[in-house]
Design brief:
Blueprint: H1 2-12, H2 31-48, H3 61-71, E1 75-82, E2 87-93, H4 99-116, H5 125-131, E3 132-136, E4 139-141, H6 148-151, E5 158-163
Parallel strand pairs: 1-5
Antiparallel strand pairs: 1-2, 3-4, 3-5
């Protein structure tokens, strides 16, 4: 593995002589080629790691950090179930996690999912939160500042994402 990295480092380097010409023993790579090599190397490393192997290709730094925090017991996974049956696992901090943290994790997950699918749809999250809410064991998670532990939400809890019904007398 160390030799493979050394070989790749040597091919990525370009040395110059005093007269400004490129040394013929080093290969010159374009930005795209270097990016491709770096991405494939990173994907290879992540696929071999037992903790990070289940992360998707094109993983973000935030996703790696979340997975590491989860392994260290600093975060929990909450499953958000949509009405179409899709279960979305989101990682949130274990201590002092609020309803707002859950909403942000859901938003992050959906934004990354759409980007990976190369979907250019623009989502109005203000509309999403005005017309939907989370439900846990019959309790609506309405107040963004409420702690999730106050509702009894723990690691691997299931929260339902449902459409907000219009209440009688409300405008």
């Amino acid at each position: 593995m160390a030799n493979e990295v050394q070989v790749r480092e040597n091919t990525m380097l370009t040395s110059h002589s005093d007269d400004g010409e490129t040394d013929s023993e080093h290969e010159v790579l374009s930005h795209e080629e270097l990016l491709e090599i770096t991405t494939s190397t990173l994907n290879d490393i992540l696929s071999r790691d037992p903790v990070l192997s289940d992360l998707p290709k094109g993983v973000t730094v935030e996703e790696v950090n979340s997975q590491i925090a989860l392994e260290h017991g600093q975060s929990i996974t909450v499953f958000i179930e949509r009405l179409d049956g899709e279960r979305i696992p989101v990682v949130i901090p274990q201590k002092e996690a609020t309803v707002l943290d859950l909403k942000r994790a859901f938003r992050r997950h959906m934004t990354l999912k759409l980007a990976r699918e190369r979907c250019s749809a623009k989502i109005s999250w203000r509309y999403v939160w005005r017309s939907n809410y989370f439900l846990f064991e019959g309790q609506k998670l309405k107040n963004n500042k409420d702690l999730l532990t106050g509702y009894g939400i723990r690691n691997k809890s299931k929260v339902t994402f449902i459409k907000r019904l219009r209440e009688k007398g409300a405008e």
